[in-house]
Amino acid sequence: MERRQLTVQVGFGLEAGERLAIFGTSGAGKTTILESIAGLTRLSRGIVRIDGKLVAGRSKGETALEPRDRQVALVRQPTTLFPHLTVEQNVTYGIRRSPARGRVTELLERLGLSVLARARGAALSGGQRQRVALGRALASSFRVLLLDEPLSAVDVAAREALRLLTIEISVERGATGILVTHDLTEAQAFSDRLGIIDNGRLLQMGGALEVVLSPVTRRVAELVGYGGFVPAPGAANRWYAIHPDRVLLGSAGERGVVLTGSILSTRPFGSRYECTVAERSGGQFTIHLDEPPAAGVVCALTVLDPPVVHA
Q1: How many separate domains does the chain show?
Q2: CA-to-CA distance for 221 and 244, rounded, in angstroms?
Q3: Which of 56, 102, 131, 184 has the fewest CB atoms within 10 Å, counting from its CB?
Q4: Mean pLDDT rounded to a whole number for the chain
């Protein structure tokens, strides 16, 4: 079987204390970016600097920092623990200076690992292993925190507390954080800035809400959840992008663009309903409503300030 190779072409800079989430589908190149920043992947072109110091790539007259001097903490996927060490020993592994006992105890408690402090890796679930790996990163003296889907196996009820813990410690350190994920909600909850990557290319970067509300291309819009496109007036190959959560039933032209559509089907969607709509120009899209009309009804729909995107 021929192995697919992906060339990743990105370029960005972050200030100390900033948090960036890189969002994209599986195989888009997200993990490669983290490994390049950590100095684990050899670059064919370009360089990576942390605090102005060379980490990866080549620059005349400079030698890249050794891994131990980079102050980079990386939580990788799949999670790797030392099987012969306890949870507590894994969390404190590699710390040059022994942390205070009270600090370790507090960190284990906030990670939900207190009762497992003396357990070994083989006895842990996938979600527990991720908590340990996250704890090991947070316990280190990092200046840059790199997170590769760090909470994917953790139960949803615990994710918010762990995410807030991660942000809190990063802010205390004045550290830069980069999360890669294919969960848009997770990306926005963690980051100040959001980057959209597809097939090895960084398509758009901006504020965590700005990118979602104002995608510049149809592909970015598709990736961040816009499920429908209808022709926009003016130049060819320009469309109104329709987000399922930004549609009202009825005509309210002062709030957006009014379309006419026929409801093809309705089904439960959490606490709301998801409707498939056929728009009169011929396109189909889905919308989420609190009280949807019955299937077959033709009605006016207001798309709230839809962005206009191009190919």
Answers
A1: 2
A2: 12
A3: 102
A4: 91
pLDDT tens column, 56-92:
888 888 888 887 788 999 998 888 898 889 999 999 9
Number of CB atoms found within 10 A of residue 268's CB: 8
Helices and strands counted in the chain (H then E): 8, 16
| Strand duo 228-231 + 238-242: pairing | antiparallel
Nearest C-alpha neighbor of 14 from the set 237, 232, 170, 189:
170
Q: By the 8 A CB rule, do 288 and 244 touch?
A: yes
Spatial contact of 41 and 199, defined as CB atoms under 8 Å apart: no
Q: Are residues 196 and 72 in the same domain?
A: yes
pLDDT-derived band at 221 (thresholds 50, 70, 90) equals very high
| Residue 4 within a domain | no
Which 3 state secondary structure label does DSSP give 162?
Answer: helix
Residue of 18, 68, 12 lying closest to 170 (CA atoms)? 18
DSSP-derived pairing of the beta strands 201-207 and 193-198: antiparallel
Together in a domain, 209 and 182 = yes
